[in-house]
Design a protein that fits this description.
Largest sheet: 7 strands, mixed
Number of domains: 1
Number of strands: 9
Oligomer: single chain
Mean pLDDT: 77
Helix content: 25-40%
CATH topology: Rossmann fold
C-alpha cells in the first residue's frame, strides 16, 4: 500500500488514501468498462457548477488549481469558464493517469501529489476543491487549508464545496457526532470556527455549501 505522512487510522478517523489505494484496480476497470459511471460523476458536478458559476467571473486570465481532482472530470467544467491554465492534483496515481488519458489539453496539467502536502512555486488565482475536505480527518483538513494558503496568489481566492462544516458547533461536538455515527462513516465534520481560525489571516465566508477563502 502507498504510505502518506499525516494519514492515521483509528482515533484520527478515516484513512482516505488507504481506501482509494485498496480500490484502485477495481476502480480503473470500472471506469474504463462502464463510461456511464464517469458520466454520472460528470452529471453530479453539472448539478454543482451552476452554483459555482454564481461565485465566478469569467476566468480568461485565471490560473486554476483543482485540489482533489480525481479522474479529471471537473477539468471540462472549469475550462468552460475560460481559465488560462488548469492544474489538477490528486493523491491517487491511477486517477491522475486516467485524467491525462481522458481529459487532455494544451493548457491542462495533472499532478500526482498528496493535496495536504502539495506545494508549488507557481501561484494560482483560484483554488477549487469539491467534497475533498469532508472525507478527511481533522489533521488533514487543517493541512489542506495550509496548502490552499501556500499556493494562492496574494489576491487569489479559494472556493470549496463541502457538506460537513457546522456553525455553532464545537470541535468536541463534531467529534461526538462522528463517534456516534451521526454522520456518514467517511464524512468527518468540522466546526466552522476552526476552519475560520485555520484560514487566518485570510477570511472565509459561507454561501450554502460553498465556502470562499480570500
Amino acid at each position: 500500500m502507498i504510505e502518506y505522512a499525516g494519514v492515521l487510522n483509528g482515533k484520527d478517523g478515516y484513512n482516505v488514501h488507504a481506501d482509494y489505494d485498496s480500490r484502485k484496480g477495481m476502480e480503473l476497470v470500472t471506469l474504463a468498462a462502464n463510461p456511464g459511471i464517469l458520466k454520472a460523476l460528470e452529471g453530479w458536478h453539472a448539478y454543482i457548477f451552476p452554483g459555482l458559476a454564481r461565485h465566478l467571473v469569467p476566468l480568461s486570465d485565471y490560473e486554476v488549481c483543482d485540489l482533489g481532482c480525481g479522474p479529471g472530470h471537473q477539468a471540462n467544467f472549469l475550462a468552460a469558464f475560460g481559465c488560462k491554465r488548469y492544474v489538477g492534483v490528486d493523491a491517487c496515481e491511477h486517477r491522475i493517469q486516467f485524467a491525462k488519458t481522458h481529459y487532455p489539453g494544451s493548457n491542462r496539467e495533472f499532478v500526482h501529489a498528496d493535496v495536504c502536502k502539495f506545494r508549488s512555486e507557481e501561484k494560482f488565482d483560484l483554488v477549487w476543491t469539491c467534497t475533498v475536505m469532508q472525507h478527511m480527518p481533522l489533521s488533514m483538513k487543517l493541512a489542506l487549508v495550509e496548502t490552499i494558503k501556500s499556493i494562492l496568489k496574494p489576491d487569489g481566492r479559494c472556493l470549496m464545496y463541502e457538506g460537513r462544516v457546522y456553525r455553532d458547533t464545537t470541535l468536541e461536538q463534531c467529534e461526538a457526532m462522528y463517534a456516534k455515527k451521526d454522520c456518514a462513516a467517511h464524512m468527518i465534520p468540522i466546526p466552522f470556527s476552526l476552519l475560520e481560525e485555520a484560514c487566518s489571516p485570510r477570511q472565509i465566508k459561507q454561501s450554502g455549501n460553498f465556502y470562499e477563502i480570500w
